[in-house]
């Protein structure tokens, strides 16, 4: 049975801040140091998002190695099969490294221009508020794709922190991406 926090997090859509920027907020089980470890440690981050090393300093490199077969046993759509099965490496530069509160980095390899990700953690009693902002997304379609991705990946992070079976990824990705695209169209009206 889902807690109220899990139910709220599952329904919490990313909010478009401005053209090419989306913001997510989640309440996660703490402590903050544990959530931080899932952001920066290769093996832990690979269990919900992507693997790769993070140099623990501003100006360091961050590797984003996506191999979704590590996070789901669902069959991927053909368009994502190579990334799912073989993996895909993207990189970035750490711009803020303030453990265990703030991590920010550029993200290269998603198209032109590079985008920026900022994650802030704040203790809230036994829980941790995570705020993630992804900026400089070049197109509306990229914003919808990234929004659905973060939505799903943050759900998987919550599952990892709760020690429960990961929720579906691929079967939810396309419908959620279409929903984010529609939300953008509705907001433009």
Automatic annotation (TrEMBL):
<dbReference type="Pfam" id="PF08327">
    <property type="entry name" value="AHSA1"/>
</dbReference>
<protein>
    <submittedName>
        <fullName>SRPBCC family protein</fullName>
    </submittedName>
</protein>
<dbReference type="InterPro" id="IPR023393">
    <property type="entry name" value="START-like_dom_sf"/>
</dbReference>
<dbReference type="InterPro" id="IPR013538">
    <property type="entry name" value="ASHA1/2-like_C"/>
</dbReference>
<comment type="similarity">
    <text>Belongs to the AHA1 family.</text>
</comment>
<feature type="domain" description="Activator of Hsp90 ATPase homologue 1/2-like C-terminal">
    <location>
        <begin position="31"/>
        <end position="158"/>
    </location>
</feature>
